[in-house]
Amino acid sequence: MKNTKQIVVSKKVLAPFILITSLFALWGFANDITNPMVAAFKTVMEISNAKAALIQFAFYGGYATMAVPAALFVKKYSYKKGILLGLALYATGALLFYPAAKFEMFGFFLGSLYILTFGLAFLETTANPYILSMGPEETATRRLNLAQSFNPVGSLFGMFIASKFILTSLGSDVRNDAGDLVFDTLSSAEKAVIRTHDLAIIRDPYVMLGFVVLVILVVIAMVKMPVTQNADHSVQARTTFGRLVKNPKYREGVIAQVFYVAAQIMCWTFIIQYADNLGIPKAEAQDYNIIAMVIFLSSRFISTFLMRYMNSRLLLTIFAIGGIATVFGTIFIQGMGGLYCLIATSAFMSLMFPTIYGIALEGLKDDATLGAAGLVMAIVGGALMPPLQGAIIDMGTVAGMPAVNFSFILPFFSFIVIAVYGYRTMKVNV
Description:
By secondary structure, the chain is mostly helical. The chain is built from 21 helices and 2 strands.
């Protein structure tokens, strides 16, 4: 049994810990106000599920593009400057939703999200290793799980805004008595009026978010942040990446993170399509997404507590097996039972991102900043697999079952990869 008296966050770093932890809610909000936009854009822009899922490709592709430059910037300058630049890019991308809605161009929205996630890449690349460094290495994974527990708070708020103020206000989501969308039956002129209205509804929360982020930028700019003891600003990217690639625990951790993020985004993005196949409107389906996030948040705090007594690698393996089981039910149980299994999957996803992150970075010391960049780049999994899942859903039926059910074979495989990583870190890469 573990020593339960280990210090997770000391009083000396409590203030900066709280300040940096508040940033976790910021990218949680952006992530989860964006997920339901895939279904919204599909209808209002009259595009396929696969094309609508390019929202996720742009969003998570921004992480892959900017993670390494962000790490190099932070390594050369400081955590604070990295955070400020990240917030500036975040605000810019959010504010670009205004002209995107004005020109009614799907590509413009994609570009706005791409820039927004440049900022998120800076924030995640900076905040995660900074949290890990705020105390002893033996409690680093617990510390990151604690900080990451506030990420779902922002996510829940984003989901609430999407459900109560966006999806319920979309004119394109009006249905007839049979439950079918009315938008498809309207004339081109009627569709144009509704499209302008709906894009303005989608635009407004992002623009308001942009101004909020600017306020936070000013506040942080005025606060004196402590300098970490290991303030080596030399940049030797090639040498560092060479060492990282040769480290199996880190290398396999990046792969596991790719599949985890892919599984998370697919399970949360396509819960609306899964519910839609059962005749449930988007706004109501988003309520199920909120329930999933509440379960995710509760499980995050529970799993952080369990880490006081259980090895984080064992917990990761157990939770991955749980995810395999619930997604199996999502695929093969048709009706509300399958939807409940999909919602329950969030309980098992709760500890995965910070735990994989913490395990992969254990013992990296000076290489941790660039190592963090590789793990943030792994978020590209959220860009690559959702369009593939959307293409499967567009097929209608597969192997005699609804294609939306079969499409969850992708998260099923992802959880297998994570379970293997958890097991190997216990038995091989200790």
